[in-house]
Give the backbone structure.
Amino acid sequence: MVLEVNNVRKSFGQAQVLKGVDLRVEKGDVVAILGPSGSGKTTLLRCLNFLERADEGTLRFDGEEFRLGRMSKKDAARVRKKTAFVFQGYNLFLNKTALENVTEGLIVARGIPKAEAEELGRRALSKVGMAEHMDQYPSQLSGGQQQRVAIARAMAVEPEIIYFDEPTSALDPELTGEVLAVMRRLADEGMTMLVVTHELGFARTVSSQTVFMEGGVVVESGPSKKVFECPEEGRTRAFLQTGGLERKE
Amino acid sequence: MLENLFNSFPLLGILADSFPKILIPGLTVTIPLTAIAFSCAMLIAVAAAIVQFARVPVATQLCRFYIWIFRGTPLLVQLFVVFYGLPKVGVRIEPFPAAVIVFSLNEGAYCAETVRAALEAVPAGQLEAGLCAGLSYLQTMRRIVLPQAMRTAFPPLSNSLIAMVKDTSLAANITVVEMFRATEQINARVYEPLALYIEVGLIYLLFSTVLTWLQRVGERKLSAYESREG
Ligand SMILES: Nc1ncnc2c1ncn2[C@@H]1O[C@H](COP(=O)(O)OP(=O)(O)OP(=O)(O)O)[C@@H](O)[C@H]1O
Ligand SMILES: [Mg+2]
């Protein structure tokens, strides 16, 4: 088991966005989180990486247990070094080249010597097909290319798990394919991934587990094949039938 | 030949004679005063901006208070308080250091606001991505957020610097013999106010022009990661 969270709760003011979410991710799992807009998927991922402080909940990660509501800076930093996050809006460091984006976390956060980090960075970039763009700045890359660099940045640190928050939602349709292909390859290599997505095709074919969230709770979860082929809950079925397409563009 | 020219137009002689006497205090006082004070101001500004950006309790309030005071009172009054006022309570500061202190604090207050606004303008995702990459808050600020903010802040900060070169003439009032006071002293001897003050004005203009040119070069360098061509 890589990660287990229990009873994650989070409110913004009066609005309770997460109402006790449980989740378990095994090593090598690719877990897809589906759900309508506003169901709390992004908030859940952000709580897992402490970008948002949950009100309650426990996290078991890498053999340790943490209370999400009172995570110390030190613990948060320690856990973050073993995880990676791929954002919907890429969030590449705008003042760094593609290669520097990948090596930054290796050199600065993990103390890997520059030459070695650059070698790792080049290798990660060529895995996502971005080797020939490594000296370019984010502003010089297309959205799909930026997201592939972001994925290279995530995998270069060899994390226990990579969180993805709708990695293709900000992309033009013709660019989503290249990013999904990279993610598929990553999954095949055994990377543990927790992926919030609206791409039902990706969830169905790539993820091993699927979690369906609505209104701040997990409505249904299980092996993807089962969730997709015979969902137990009516709401899951309804969501899958509409193709999950109440997304805001 | 030049001698003849100066004899037939004595004013030219005065101007030529006074030029080095104004320029030298410019190079040895005005420019060092500006350079030292502006450097200190930048340190103050960045520190005060980050404190506010990170919403450090207490320190944020102290920064607000400091900025309120120094932006809300005239520079000349601040110079007088420090140089003529403080000796009353036993704090005697030499003219030049007194000017450095006041200009640093005054400029720091203005620039803190510039830098803070620039920090706020950096997309929040940059900080989050830094933290997620395993960098500490301060590492992310120093390596990711601040460099981007400084790019945004560079033009307004350059403006402040250019304004400051000219404002250092106020230090004349606390007996610092910088360019303007040097000009006044020459004028007291030869009484050519129009010519001499225009002359010193032109030297200020020269300094500002050089800085404006440096600003343009700096902006071109800094914009490397923004342009499509690199
Ligand atoms: N920082 C915030 N402050 C206040 N409300 C927030 C904040 N972040 C999220 N919310 C609210 O929490 C709810 C869940 O948001 P969240 O972004 O987690 O949904 P989501 O499932 O990721 O949706 P989408 O599919 O549209 O990305 C929404 O109603 C949203 O308005
Ligand atoms: Mg979301």
Q: What stands out?
A: Chain B touches chain A at residues 123, 125-126, 128-137, 139, 143-144, 147-148, 151, 224-230 (CB under 8 Å). Residues 10-229 of chain B form a domain with the MetI-like fold fold (CATH 1.10.3720.10). Residues 38 and 104 of chain B are 6 Å apart (CA to CA).
